[in-house]
Amino acid sequence: RGDWAKGLDVPVATSAEDLAEVDWLFYVGSAESFDNNGQKIAKAFVEILRAAGVRFAILGAGEPSTGECVRRAGNEMLFQQLATTLVETFNGLGVKRIVTCDPHAFNSLKNEYPAFGGQWEVVHHSQFIARLLAEGRLKVRPEHERVILHDPCYLGRHNGEYGAARTVLASVTKDAPLEFPLHKAKAMCCGAGGGRMWMEEHIGTRINVTRVQQALPLAPKVIATACPYCAVMLGDGLKATDAAERVVTRDIAELVARALVREGAAG
Questions:
Q1: pLDDT per residue over 216-245, tens digit each?
Q2: Could you give the angle at the alpha carbon of 230 between the alpha carbons of 163 and 31, nearest 5°?
Q3: Which of 32, 55, 77, 222 is deepest in the core (most CB within 10 A)?
Q4: What span, in angstroms and rounded, lies between the C-alpha atoms of 178 and 163?
Q5: pTM check: above 0.85
Q6: Residue 163: how many CB atoms within 10 A of its CB?
Q7: Which residues are within 8 A (CB) of 137 and not within 5 positions of it... i.e. 6 or more apart?
Q8: Which residues of the chain have pLDDT under 70?
């Protein structure tokens, strides 16, 4: 799980003493540990945390799975086994505050894990980046054009968080971020939620293709999201519609990392 961070000198906590030296545990999750595109999101977020001077650590190979997708797919027994392991690990290390780029993990850790003894402050990276910008800990420049935002289900409809990602995008775009015709509470799922990431669709148009087709009339250059699963699904949707050469998918962390103004940098 920690291989994505090799060569980046990312702090890895293996004891309560290690975590006592930092302010936040960055929960990476499976998607950003093992998927190549997800790893880019994790690396971009690390770049942002460092630029803001945030004291953080990851658990590396010791990071347990939340089992969120397992529960959605119907294997409750396995989920509860994974939940017990994660809670024992986190509480044994004295975890207090968690930040994650994965809305699935965010929703599960925040709303489902208290039933298993997990009482932590859990923040999504869109909220965290917005906070860092508001506090003046990050300096960014308008870098991107024609960016349209897709609302992840587990961030939006499940947790009512629609503003943070828009605030972040507004700080790094040259023009106002675009909106899908169906957005915020009416946004469509990318097709990955509810464990559907691992299932095949056999009837009608694939959901991720439909979602991409809703964006194309607005001529975006970037479909932005704040979820590694959405990024995969929308990227596949772009390929299926032959739009991948003119439109890309990017997580908001990747867009912010590219727009960072570093101390001493020209311009």
A1: 999 999 999 999 999 999 999 999 999 999
A2: 110
A3: 32
A4: 14
A5: yes
A6: 12
A7: 52, 53, 54
A8: 197-198, 202, 264-267
